[in-house]
Amino acid sequence: MRALALIVISMCTALVPAAAAAQDPAELRRQIEQLQKQLDSVTDRLRRLEAQPPQPTPAAPAPADAPPGPGVAAPPPATAPPSAMDLARPRQPFGLYQQRGAGQLLFDMGIAGDFVGNITQRNVERAGGGTFAGQENRFFPREVELSLFGQIDPYASAVVRFEAGEEARGADTSVHLAEAYLTLLTLPYGTQARLGQMRNRFGWSNEVHEHDLPWVDRPNVMRNFLGPEGLQEKGAELTFVPDLPFYVEALAGIFNGDNTTAFGRGTLQHPLATGRIRTFFELGLEHAIQLGMSVASGDTPDRNRSTILGWEARYKYRPDGWLHPLVTLTGEALYSLRKVDVGVDLDGDGSIDRVSKRERDHSGYYAGLEVQPFRRWAGGVRYDWSQYPTTPGWEWAIEPYVSFWPSEFLRFRLAYKYTDRSPQTRDAFNLNDSSARKVDEILFEASFILGAHPAHPF
Amino acid sequence: MRVRTSVLVGLLVLVGLLSSGAEGAHKLRVVTTIPDFKALVEEIGGDLVDVETLARGSQNAHEVEIRPSLMLRLRRADLFVENGLELDAWSDVAVQGANNPKIVRGAVGRVDASRGIPVLDVPSTRVDRSMGDVHPLGNPHYSLDPGLAPIVTQNLLDGMVRVAPEARETFEKNREAFLARVEDAMVRWRKTLEPFKGAKVVVYHPDYAYFLARFGVAQAGMLEDRPGIPPSPQHLAQLIRQMKDERVKVMLVQPWNDLKLAQRVADEAGAKAVVVPTMVGGVKGADTYIGAIDYNVNALAQALR
User: Which of A75, A118, A134, A319 qualifies as a cystine partner to A62, CB 3.0-4.6 A?
Assistant: First the structure.
């Protein structure tokens, strides 16, 4: 009953002004004319809008300092910056960040996952002589990498990479800082500096991460002379690109020298010095070749000098209009000049009477050919020949492989690798009453990329 | 000691000589990621600029190989123009390898030509890679929409004036003259495509959104399953059925697309596949900005006729 009374009162309240207005026909006519004008205006506006092409919401605001030129459509206004009151108001995390527009994180991030597996003979597993030493006949995460990269400010950019991987059979997956460096971008005279922990720009493949390599594994010569993960050091690199009619990049670096395979002294008082010079030539639009030479020289823990010279060449044939190269040839060679301490038994009694220094000049190389006739498929073969840095003997290997990309962000690879080691190759490959002189391996790899991933240079 | 000092001095002199390069009569050196902006900068700059492009018109601008030769071009640039909207994100790697502080991000010599344009196909929901090679910032293929030439050339002009303020007057005059020519041509283009307003076409990849919207032609479907993902047989069968049902007579293809596949699908649907480049220089006869749009308008009109 009370509700009914309320409804009646409400209706009366609403109708009274209308009824009052209706009492004046002139006022009613004026209102109708006003409504007619509004309708005409809206109809006209609608007609003009329909004549234009669709204009969805702009994603990029116009620069505030860019006034439109004569006869130019004005760009949409920029979003107003937060006021002092906005800044003072209590807010949720990223409250102000959201005003810059969704997805604006100020830097990029991406994850690359790289899983590898191998199947080989039992004796190779017992001797630990496979490509992934200690991980024979296993499938494991070799490298799962979180990358963060972007501009620090107008003068510098930074890259930080954390890596996780199974480093030994059945071991817990460990996480470590793989790279963290800043690059000073605005230095004068065509120079640029990189400081921090980084993969050294030594040769072509050393800088390439495991999941970006064109093969399942790093070439034997690189692993033998620079360690299973290559040369990664803490220090600084300076590059210089002169203003010449052809491309030349010169690089010089100073590092701690922590790499235990090649150097290992690990002090800036006796630093590892690196250098590289590379050039590039285009032979028409379709052929291109990059040539380079590198040097790294440092001390070993027993205070002996170790110097590694490197040569690199990379050629690509990319038919005009193709989205990928048809033929890629890659080759690198290393020559190691290393002093080692050798114990000398002068009187033949079995005990070492004197330690003398000997020169060990050893070398190795690899050459790879890849053919990619289709966008999603590539096949290739790599040949390796390498000595060992300090021990006698040598090995050669051949590795045919095939790669398949379901999309740009996912890749599968299958390879067969045959390795043959010389009879002089002892010690490391003759363990646990087994020998790993002749090794047959099936290698497989699955790699993916989540999120941002920087483009790869030539 | 004296020898070491001499070597050091010699090296410093060499570095100085090499880094200074040949100066002489200096034109404004501009490098653009795609040839469309090269054509526009040439229109604005006239004789005062020397322009190079990193990608060619016949190349897919999404996937340009970062050769050191690109870095060499960027090494000497006073101004660098990028498309933005993630079309040419690869150019950051090339710029970083060029050791040229004038064109790094945030420097006065860096121009993002997309600033202020009304972007199409901006995702309104959460996107991920299951949708293919999507662009979270929107469709980046705006450069050959003549209706956007005023905004794009304004961005270019702003950048050019920042690095060569003394030439402002010339640049502005050139731009006005160019825009007047575009306006004249626009009358011609609209007239040519007027009879086909509302017509439907199928595209290989969504590179034509701005161009088609400008002239009132509808995009009925796409040959790729999702952007950047090759089509499955089921998708192709469905597309052919759709083209037949909706009587779509034209498929627009880029020079780098799989022309055989496009032709096969078009044949089965009773349509024709037409190469319509989205960049200046994509085909012969499309070597200037207006020339490229002329080519595209005529090719589309002829195919729809």
Answer: A75
Per residue, the 3-state secondary structure of B23-65, as one string, reads: CCCCCEEEEECCHHHHHHHHHHHHHHEEEEECCCCCCCCCCCC
Class of domain A187-439: mainly beta
Tell me B120's DSSP state: S
Q: What percent of chain A has pLDDT over 90?
A: 61
Fold of B194-304: Rossmann fold (3.40.50)
Contact: A71, B179; criterion CB under 8 Å:
yes
**Residue-level pLDDT at B229:** 83
Helix segments in chain B, DSSP class H:
2-20, 35-45, 68-75, 91-96, 149-163, 168-193, 209-214, 233-245, 259-269, 289-304
Residues within 8 A of A (CB atoms), B 248-267 only = 255-256
Each residue's pLDDT tens digit, A135-181: 999 999 999 999 999 999 999 999 999 999 998 888 888 899 999 99
Nearest to A129, CA basis, from A387, A368, A418:
A418
DSSP state, residue A207: G
Q: Considering just the CA atoms, what is the radius of gyration of chain B in Å?
A: 22
Torsion over CA of B215, B221, B226 and B232, rounded to 10 degrees?
A: -150
Dihedral, CA of residue A185, residue A186, residue A191 and residue A192, to nearest 10: -20
Query: Which one has a higher pLDDT value, A106 or A113?
Result: A113
Please state, in angstroms and as integers, the Cα–Cα distance from residue B49 to each residue in A396, B27, B148, B152, B215, following that order.
Answer: 55, 5, 23, 18, 32
Q: Which two tokens stand for residue A139?
A: 């499938």
Contact A154/B67 with Cβ under 8 angstroms?
Answer: no
The whole-angstrom separation of Cα B300 and Cα B277 is 11
Question: Can you name the residues that pair with A328 across neighbouring β-strands?
Answer: A316, A370
- Specify the amino acid at residue A452: A
pLDDT in tens, A338-379: 999 888 888 888 888 888 888 999 999 999 999 999 989 999
**Whole-angstrom distance between the N-terminal and C-terminal Cα of chain B?**
83
The candidate with the shortest Cα–Cα distance to A221, out of A261, A194, A271, A168, is: A261
- DSSP 8-state symbol, A427: G
Q: Domain ranges in chain B?
A: 25-183, 194-304
The Cα A267–Cα B195 span in angstroms is 77
Phi, psi of A447 (to 5 degrees): -130, 145
Annotation: CATH topology of B25-183: Rossmann fold (3.40.50)
Record: contact B59-A190, CB cut-off 8 A: no
Of B151, B89, B136, B83, nearest to B111 by C-alpha is B83
Q: Cβ contacts (< 8 Å) between B116 and chain A: which residues?
A: 58, 60-63, 66, 75-76
What are A454's two structure tokens? 């920087």
Q: Are B267 and B250 in contact (CB under 8 A)?
A: no
Query: Fold identical between B25-183 and B194-304?
Result: yes
CA distance A251 to A253: 7
- Residue of B65, B114, B118 lying closest to A56 (CB–CB): B118
Q: What residue segments make up the domains of chain A, in order of their start?
A: 187-439
Cβ contact B105–A151 (<8 Å): yes
Q: Which residues of B131-148 are buried (b: 16+ CB within 10 A; e: fewer)?
A: ebbbbebbbbbbbbbbbb
What pLDDT, on the 0 to 100 scale, is given for residue A365? 98
- The pLDDT score that the predictor gives to residue A12 is 42
Give contacts of B 199-228 with A, CB under 8 A. 213-216, 228
The answer to whether B150 contacts chain A (CB < 8 Å) is yes
Report the SS3 class of residue A158.
Answer: strand
B118-122 contacts, C-beta under 8 A, 24 or more apart? B118/A55, B118/A56, B118/A57, B118/A58, B118/A76, B118/B148, B119/A56, B119/A57, B119/A58, B119/A59, B119/A60, B119/B85, B120/A54, B120/A56, B120/B209, B120/B210, B120/B213, B121/A56, B121/B206, B121/B209, B122/A56, B122/A57, B122/A59
**C-alpha radius of gyration, chain A, whole number:** 34
